[in-house]
Design goal:
By secondary structure, the chain is an alpha+beta fold. The protein contains eleven helices and four strands; from the N terminus they run H-H-H-H-H-H-H-H-H-E-E-E-H-E-H. The longest helix is centred in the middle third of the chain and has 36 residues, at 109-144.
C-alpha cells in the first residue's frame, strides 16, 4: 500500500481577507442593495421636488406650510437611525446559532467583526455623505426660491456630509454594541432607537454653546440690539443692568398706569437697567459648530467601537 503526500494537501491558519469580504457580501448583499436602492430613490425624489415650486408631487405637499424641503430635511435626520437600527448584525448570529460555525478556529469573533466592518462601514459612510450633500442642495435650492431654511433650522444645520457620516458611524457602532450585549435583535433595535434619539436630540440645543456666544449690547436710545445678519443663530436676549448683568424685563414695570410713551423705559432706568442685549452665534461660525459636532460624534463612535472590540473578545 502506497501513501501519497504532496503539495496539493494544504492547510491555512486564517481565512484570508478577500474571503471574509466575499462572505460578508454574500451574507448581507440583500441588506446592502436594499439600503442603496432606497437611498438613491430618496435622493432622486428629493432632488426632483426642487425642480418646480408649487407643483407638489405628493398630496401631503399640497399644504403650503408643509413644503417638500422641510419634509425632506426632516427625513434626512432619520438616515442615521435607519443604519443604527437595521444594520445591527451580531444578535442575529446568536439567535440563529450561526456564531458557533462562523467563529471557528480559522475566524475569531474579532476577525469576523473586522471583516464585516471593512465592507459595511465604507458603504454606510458613502451613503451618509450622499444624503448630506443632497440635504444641502435641497436647502440651498429652496432658499433661492424664497424659503427660509437658515442654519437655525436643525435639519438644515445637519445637512452636511461630514455630520451625516458622523451620525451614521455613531449609530452603527451603538447598534452593534447593543446587539452584541443583548444578543436579542428586537430588544437591541428598540434600545438603539431610544438611545440614538436621546443623544441626537439632546445635543441640538447645546450646539449653540459649543463656542462662546457673541453678545451685542445696546444702550437705550441707540438701536434695537438685534444681530446684524438674518441667519445669525439667536441664543437669548434681555436687559442689562449698570453692572453688566443680564436680567429679564422687571415685573414692577409691567401694567403701569396710563402715562407718557417713555414711561416703561423710565421705569426700567429707575430700576437700574441701562440697555438691552442679545447673545448669538454669527452665521460665519456655523462650519466651526458643525466641525465640533462631527468631533463629538466621532469620539462617541470611537469609544463604542472600542467597547465592541472588547465585548467581541469575550464572545
Amino acid at each position: 500500500m502506497t501513501v501519497t503526500t504532496g503539495r496539493s494537501a494544504t492547510s491555512r491558519s486564517r481565512v484570508p481577507w478577500p474571503d471574509l469580504l466575499r462572505l460578508t457580501w454574500r451574507q448581507h448583499r440583500a441588506l446592502l442593495l436594499t439600503s442603496i436602492l432606497l437611498t438613491l430613490a430618496a435622493i432622486a425624489f428629493a432632488l426632483s421636488t426642487t425642480a418646480a415650486r408649487g407643483t407638489p408631487l405628493l398630496p401631503v405637499f399640497a399644504d403650503t406650510d408643509a413644503d417638500p424641503a422641510r419634509w425632506i430635511l426632516l427625513a434626512e435626520q432619520g438616515f442615521g437611525v435607519f443604519i443604527a437600527v437595521f444594520w445591527a448584525l451580531i444578535s442575529l448570529e446568536y439567535e440563529r446559532r450561526t456564531n458557533l460555525l462562523a467563529w471557528s478556529q480559522d475566524v475569531s469573533p474579532r476577525r469576523w467583526l473586522a471583516g464585516k466592518l471593512a465592507l459595511l462601514v465604507p458603504v454606510a459612510v458613502v451613503l451618509a455623505v450622499a444624503v448630506g450633500v443632497t440635504g444641502g442642495v435641497v436647502a440651498g435650492r429652496y432658499n433661492e426660491q424664497g424659503f427660509d431654511f437658515g442654519p437655525g433650522f436643525a435639519a438644515n444645520f445637519e445637512a452636511s456630509p461630514a455630520l451625516q457620516a458622523a451620525y451614521v458611524l455613531f449609530g452603527f457602532a451603538l447598534g452593534l454594541v447593543l446587539s452584541a450585549l443583548t444578543r436579542r435583535t428586537v430588544l437591541s433595535m428598540a434600545l438603539t432607537l431610544g438611545i440614538y434619539a436621546v443623544v441626537r436630540f439632546a445635543l441640538i440645543p447645546w450646539r449653540l454653546h459649543y463656542l462662546p456666544a457673541v453678545r451685542e449690547a445696546t444702550p437705550f436710545g441707540s438701536g434695537d440690539g438685534r444681530p446684524t445678519q438674518p441667519d445669525d443663530l439667536w441664543i437669548t436676549s434681555g436687559y442689562l443692568t449698570t453692572s453688566g448683568e443680564g436680567v429679564d424685563f422687571p415685573q414692577v414695570c409691567l401694567n403701569l398706569p396710563p402715562g407718557p410713551p417713555e414711561a416703561p423705559r423710565t421705569c426700567m432706568i429707575e430700576n437700574g437697567i441701562v440697555g438691552s442685549f442679545v447673545d448669538y452665534q454669527p452665521v460665519t461660525r456655523v462650519p466651526a459648530l458643525q466641525f465640533i459636532e462631527v468631533g463629538i460624534f466621532a469620539v462617541l463612535a470611537a469609544v463604542l467601537f472600542a467597547v465592541l472590540w472588547r465585548v467581541m473578545r469575550r464572545a
